[in-house]
Amino acid sequence: MSDAPQKIRKLLIANRGEIACRVMATCQTLGIKTVAVYSEADKNALHVAMADEAVHIGPPSASESYLVIDKIIDAAKTTGADAVHPGYGFLSENPEFTDRCAAEGIIFIGPSAASMNAMALKGAAKKLMTDAGVPVVPGYHGEDQSLDVLTEEAGKIGYPVLIKAVAGGGGKGMRIVEKAADLPAGIEAARREGENSFGNGKLLIEKLIQKPRHIELQVFGDRDGNAVHLFERDCSLQRRHQKVVEEAPAPGMSAEMRRAMGDAAVRAAQAIDYVGAGTVEFIVDVANGLDDAPFYFMEMNTRLQVEHPVTEMITGQDLVEWQISVAEGHPLPLSQDEIDVLTHGHAVEVRLYAEDPFNGFLPSIGTIGLFDPFAETAPNTRIDAGVRAGDEVSIHYDPMIAKLIAWGDSRADAVHALTELLAQTPVIGLATNRDFLMRALKHPEFQAGDVHTGFIPSHEDILLSAPVVETRDYLVAAIAILANRHKHDAMQATDDPWAALDGFRLNLPHSELLKFETIEGELLIVTLEQTASGVHVKSADEALSVSDVMLSGDSLSFVKTGKRRQIFVSVSDENVSLIDDTRTLTLKRHARDGGGSDDADGPGTIVAPMPGKILELKASVGDAVSKGDALLVMEAMKMEQTITSPRDGIVAQFGAKAGDQVSDGSMLVVVSDPE
Ligand code: ADP
Questions:
Q1: How many CB atoms sit inside 10 A of residue 8's CB?
Q2: DSSP-derived secondary structure for 232-296
């Protein structure tokens, strides 16, 4: 029997961003005091503002702050916290940290160090699972890492194979190898990523499942040895092995298969005396459909997952509350039968990232101009965020902005609600993957439930083509500039923000010229005229007349041919951003005094979007390249990024060579006009 339950009164959250805020939200409902820790970069962060107390733990780099066990333990002791929640990432799966907490008499919200150790390395975990009767992907996970042995084993498995860093996570350290000749290069790349990101270059080789679905089971264990599952999540929509869309339950799964996978997951948890929240990840071979498809254990994550909200929405349970209760020593709140009865409907989550899908998913850093995580949303939806307008997305941490989640009676209802939520959640100030997510959710195959891990790569033509900018957009941008100016004038005149929010009527005769620079670098002039009947804008080849223009907050609306239209806008001296249901556009305003395509920073000059290291040049000076051709590969934010040419032209100059460290904004390559 376990010890008597111990009430947690003050909880330190050893994390940042959305998960720190998520954990604090539950603490607030339970009346538990919260302690935040923060690095220098996070002193104004949302998680710090939300906490009852906050402790500064060092410089921005995670290795000097969020990952330093001594600093976290000190913070817990000085604030008198009786427990620590690690969130995900950082120290969440670090057995040394778990042991330190135990030694200091601080409750660690998570499993024991022994459970973590059992699952820490993918190879050892696979062996353990085989012994527990849980099926694993056929492959090699032996000690001998010589090229000869790996080559021989890969041959035995049969190509194509998947190489994985045993310590890998988050999709890093994995390489698909199609044929024997490519094996050495694949091994080198996976090993390099394993060493750089996890300090462990050891690899395993698996059979590559050609048409897989990623289906994982949420499990929970308590100190009395009980274990249950809270159903599955389908996380098959992935890019480079990273989850993009997650949902529960898995579309099209039969009750028998759900039972079989649930049983296997509970067996996995019991095999390691699991306590707390965990996820058992399976890969399902759906080459012949989902019915009775073979499923294999991939790994177990010994923490709360990013995608836990979809499980919360279908079960109506608060998993952080469960974690706290189990850590206090209480038995599991519900039995398997009770969970089965409570579960209903469907939930879908998307991960909104600061990255540019139309430019190789390059992470984008900078200040968030517009984003309101507290905006009132439909009752069946939820936004989990760790940032708000004015916050920085920096190179130091994961560039996730928020998770958007929606529930519905049916899958179609949930997907529809999520699309609406995305449409009503504009983010301005940096590039995001919102339009890409929207296109994925609207794709007929996704809507039909035909999900698999190859979905995104096989629909790149639709998902990843840059949005088309039309002349009409510049006309709307001109209206936005005018409306924005009126709003500012009104606010200055009255010093009363309500005067501006009241809307304004444009009734003074007025006309002016506004200049933009098109994507192609050309000058586009818009004339704007205000009359008693409304606003008339026109360019050389298109005209638009609207009336009743209103700008309320960031929402611009006007009446066109009898109908009111609404669009989110943001206006600065340099740009106008327009966000409608399907597109996020940033249109460049033309500099007053010249500039344009001949600028050094014109479209042909590519600068480093963030600090990083150049790994390889993919072209040479003098090469003719087409728009989209790879120019170089750099490593930034621990991921390899391919920088592609923004236009057709000739490579005129490289500003760096392989091996160089480059800083944010430094010139990487110039592509000049073709002669
Ligand atoms: P990580 O720990 O980096 O998340 P996983 O082992 O969980 O790595 O795998 C991540 C993703 O990679 C899976 O969701 C799946 O899409 C893909 N994957 C993993 N193993 C295989 C395999 N043997 N065949 C095909 N795809 C795989």
A1: 21
A2: EEEEEEEETTEEEEEEES-TT--HHHHHHHHHHHHHHHHHTT--EEEEEEEEEE-TT-STT--EE
Q: With contact defined as beta carbons under 8 Å apart, do 113 and 91 qualify?
A: no
Counting Cβ atoms within 10 Å, is residue 158 exposed (0-12), middle (13-18) or buried (19+)?
A: exposed
Q: Is the CB of 456 under 6 A from ligand 1?
A: no
The CA distances from residue 528 to 215, 298, 615, in Å, are 55, 60, 49
Residue 181 carries which DSSP code? G
SS3 label, residue 205: strand
Provide the whole-model pTM.
0.85
* CA-wise closest residue to 15 among 40, 53, 47: 47
Strand-pair category, 33-38 with 10-13: parallel
Ligand 1 atom closest to Cα of 238? 16
Which of 469, 540, 455, 547 is CA-nearest to residue 506?
Answer: 547
- Return d(Cα 309, Cα 301) in angstroms, integer: 16
User: Which ligand 1 atom sits closest to the C-alpha of 235?
Assistant: 14
Pairing of strands 107-108, 83-85: parallel
Sheet bearing 612-617, strands edge to edge: 639-644, 630-636, 612-617, 661-662
Which protein residue's CA is at the shortest distance from atom 6 of ligand 1? 298
Contact between residue 39 and residue 48 where contact means Cβ atoms under 8 Å apart: no
Per-residue pLDDT reduced to its tens digit, 569-591: 999 989 999 999 889 999 999 87
pLDDT digits (tens, 9 = 90+) for 597-620: 333 344 678 888 778 899 999 999
Q: What is the pLDDT of residues 333-391, one digit of tens each?
A: 999 999 999 999 999 999 999 999 998 899 999 999 889 999 999 999 999 999 999 99
| Interaxial angle between packed helices 95-103 and 113-120, expressed in degrees from 0 to 180 and rounded to the nearest 10 | 170
Q: How far, in Å, from the CA of 435 to the mean position of ligand 1?
A: 26
For tokens 């003098």, the residue is 622
Instruction: Specify whether 485 is catalytic.
Output: no
